[in-house]
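Entry details:
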Amino acid sequence: MAQALQPNTAGSLFATDGKAHPLQDALMAATLVLGLLSFITSFFHGLHLLTSWAGLAGLLVGAYGQWISVTTRERFGLILGLGASGIGFLLGMAHGGLFGGLIS
């Protein structure tokens, strides 16, 4: 009856291995914050520098996080952050780019 003492998390979307992953969790949080910042600021054309740089940083941090991620929970958060970062980055590039107006 050993299985009665341990819950079955294999079928859960947020399954974890029961170990702490501080680096992976920090990368996931940073990707989500950068993605949210990039996505929200993409609605304002004048903030294209912030939008595009935050989106690019979110894409790079999220890609590294995906590379070293261990659990489904980490990958799920990273994919959400990567999607928001990608949308923000592309809209920021469409509105003026990484250096729009600063270098001509």
About this structure: The chain has a mean pLDDT of 87. The radius of gyration is 18 Å.
